[in-house]
Amino acid sequence: LLRQILDQWFESEPLKATLATDAVIGAMASPHTPGSGYVLLHHVMGELDGQRGAWGYVAGGMGALSQAIANAAAARGAHIFAEKAVCHVLLGRDGQAQGVALQDGTEVRSKLVLSNASPQVTFLELIPQVRLHPASPVIPPPCPVAVDRLPSFLAAPNSRDGQPLPHHQCSIHLNCEDTQLLHQAFTEATHGHPSSRPMIELCIPSALDPGLAPRGCHVVSLFTQYTPSVLAGGQPWDEQARNAYADTVFDCIEAYAPGFKASVVGRDILTPPDLEKIFGLPGGNIFHGGMSLDQLYFARPAPSYSGYRSPIPGLYLCGSGAHPGGGVMGAAGRNAAQVALEDFKRL
Question: What is the reported pLDDT for 253?
Answer without folding.
Answer: 97
